């Protein structure tokens, strides 16, 4: 039986009933979301038409051969997915270079330029900034995205391990790990000298391939299969980890990521992932 999941702040029972009638499906309410059960598979064309017609909703097919009860690892990108900001852009703002860095960030997230090269270019622009700026950003500018705490609580209740990965920086991932009791983190390390950023990175760059390798390494560590994982992200450097995960989710993501992911969430908050854990 094919299943569609409807979500979004503008979703009403009347609208859900209308879509159910259009698709000749059985409608069932599940609290904040609705499920439509059909006897026939939904074609990609049908799904695309529904999304185009009802573009204020998140409409997703519950993937075949996906078993939420088997999920043991949840891997989430940090900047603009788990948290509300792009940390590198915030750091650059203190040096008056936000526009330069932001333009490179946007192009990299769209997949228009190589992530590793773009990161080197952006970090170079941060040279001379005080390390204290990072603390100020964490304390005054950074919050986890809406629905995040509810999602974390549900994952922990299910004893699903949580990994935070980022093409950003360890300063932020490690503080988030401690504050929200996360299990694993992976990010780039900024080189610091005399309490100022040098404009370079220490160690290897964490890009798309590193994120995917980290997911697979954690699978080995936990003695699970990649199909027992969920990965979620928003930018091009998340594509490789999304490809190897059991369930891939694009969260308010760039077009290339939405096209590649099994699930796209553009209207719901992070707790919009919960229907895929039931």
Structure description:
There is one protein chain. The chain has 278 residues and is of the alpha/beta class. Helices cover 40% and strands 23% of the residues. The protein has helices at 13-23, 44-53, 78-82, 87-93, 98-109, 115-124, 132-140, 148-157, 170-180, 208-222, 239-244, 255-260, and strands at residues 2-7, 26-30, 33-38, 58-61, 73-77, 161-169, 184-193, 196-202, 229-233, 247-251, 263-265. The strands form two sheets. Strands 8-7-6-5-9-10-11 form a seven-stranded mixed β-sheet, with helices on both faces. A four-stranded antiparallel β-sheet has the order 2-3-1-4, covered by helices on one side. Strand 6, helix 9 (170-180) and strand 7 (184-193) form a beta-alpha-beta unit. Helix 4 (87-93) packs antiparallel against helix 5. It is elongated.
Question: How are the SSEs ordered, and which strands pair?
Answer:
Layout: E1 2-7, H1 13-23, E2 26-30, E3 33-38, H2 44-53, E4 58-61, E5 73-77, H3 78-82, H4 87-93, H5 98-109, H6 115-124, H7 132-140, H8 148-157, E6 161-169, H9 170-180, E7 184-193, E8 196-202, H10 208-222, E9 229-233, H11 239-244, E10 247-251, H12 255-260, E11 263-265
Parallel strand pairs: 5-6, 5-9, 6-7, 9-10, 10-11
Antiparallel strand pairs: 1-3, 1-4, 2-3, 7-8
Helix pairs in contact: 4-5, 5-6
What are its keywords?
23% strand, alpha/beta, four-stranded antiparallel β-sheet, seven-stranded mixed β-sheet, 12 helices, 278 residues
